[in-house]
């Protein structure tokens, strides 16, 4: 299990998710739900409580590292995101070189590959710099601190808004996994897969920094 971390930028602070965030996260999800058609976003306090309980159970098993997103200027919780599908490569040994590998992610054996996902934001911060900085902070930690070799991003293939946002990060489209998982609307989801590998990270980082420095407003995500 990885130790919870806090990632802070200029616009947002990514804080470890706890049960204390139920009310704030519930409020964020209730602002305007019109963009959540293909996204699993809890509605109401009880759903939000179960949502956080599920995330923390997965964290306890070493599978995820969930955050809430705090908007620094307003000091409000405005969404959530997480690392998931954390995997430590054990072959060829040792991986990474000079570090003993183990069966599950830990601070001494950071993830070799990871995914960034389960991301959603309150309507008031969508199409602002919030998502750009969240991704910059998380990608930087994955590639620069963990020395990960790959980060995956994926979304419902029908979610063109999310797909466009991922593409603007500089992630490479890999294809569609058909009939992949249950969809948030009750059907069966085809999933669009994207990735960034370590060699691509410098260019992606430059792109994200330039977007933040230009102070893009709407549309920016």
From TrEMBL:
This is GNAT family protein. PANTHER family: BLL6696 PROTEIN, N-ACETYLTRANSFERASE DOMAIN-CONTAINING PROTEIN. InterPro entries: Acyl_CoA_acyltransferase, GNAT_dom. It comes from the Bacteria. It comes from Paenibacillus hodogayensis. Residues 12-171 form the N-acetyltransferase domain.
């Amino acid at each position: 299990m990885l130790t919870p971390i806090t990632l802070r930028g200029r616009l947002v602070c990514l804080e470890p998710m706890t049960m204390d965030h139920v009310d704030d996260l519930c409020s964020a999800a209730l602002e305007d739900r019109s963009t959540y058609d293909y996204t699993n976003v809890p509605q109401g306090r009880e759903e939000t409580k179960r949502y956080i309980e599920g995330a923390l159970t997965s964290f306890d098993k070493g599978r995820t590292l969930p955050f809430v997103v705090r908007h620094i200027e307003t000091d409000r919780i405005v969404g959530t995101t997480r690392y998931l599908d954390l995997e430590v490569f054990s072959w060829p040994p040792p991986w990474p070189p000079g570090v003993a590998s183990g069966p599950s992610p830990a601070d001494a054996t950071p993830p070799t590959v990871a995914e960034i996902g389960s991301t959603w934001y309150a309507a008031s911060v969508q199409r602002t710099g919030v998502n750009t900085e969240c991704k910059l902070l998380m990608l930087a930690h994955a590639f620069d601190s963990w020395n990960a070799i790959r980060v995956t991003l994926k979304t419902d293939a029908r979610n063109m808004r999310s797909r466009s946002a991922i593409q603007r990060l500089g992630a490479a489209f890999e294809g569609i996994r058909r009939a992949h998982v249950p969809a948030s609307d009750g059907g069966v989801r085809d999933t669009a897969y994207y990735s960034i590998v370590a060699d691509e990270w410098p260019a992606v980082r430059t792109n994200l920094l330039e977007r933040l420095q230009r102070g893009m407003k709407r549309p920016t995500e």
